[in-house]
Design a protein that fits this description.
The protein has 9 helices and 9 strands. It has about 230 residues and is α/β, with parallel strands linked by helices. Strand 4 and strand 5 form a beta hairpin. It is elongated, with a radius of gyration of 18 Å. The mean pLDDT is about 90.
Amino acid sequence: MNIVVLTGAGMSAESGISTFRDSGGLWEKYPLEEVATPEAFRRNPELVLDFYNQRRKQIMEVSPNVAHLILADLEKHHNVQIITQNIDDLHERAGSTRVTHLHGEIRKVRSTTDPRLVYDLDGWELKMGDTCEKGSQLRPHIVWFGEMVPMIEVAQQITQQAEMLIIIGTSMAVYPAAGLVHYAPRHIPKFLIDPNETEVGYVDNLSLIRKPATIGIAELALQLQTK
């Protein structure tokens, strides 16, 4: 079965990574206008690099949770493709082999003049003066607010081939990612796993599982085993 999984911040929350909306989380300390836009990087690159250095350091200190491991295990029985809004690498570290990152990858960096030049970062710290092979400053390989989402068309094509769609840990409020649900075939089963209220609206054949990622995907995986 072709299973497409769309994951958001709630997927990694149980690993200890703050979501955008957590009380006391990073986004309360740093308004997005100061750290997550191209203008912010031009205005104060040191602050932006430090913000992502701290996030990168945190991500390297945590581990995949049970939900990540269950999705990786599903590959033994199904064709599983994960489309994630998360910039961490927990899906890969859990063992998932087909992961599309919509918003970039925090453990990679890229040239500020040639976006095709992308590198794995050794360690957690990116500094001013770290340059690409063309001599330009490196920046986080992240899709900032106001930038295009280069992988969205790939994600749309993947979703169109789904025989089951599973959405985990996302408010369905961030576009264009939230619109992917409408690319899935109308007749296929769809599941939304999230303990919070979401903004998904009406979607054909959608079942709501109001539970955290680890509990919700464990229950769903058990159902798949019995079919």
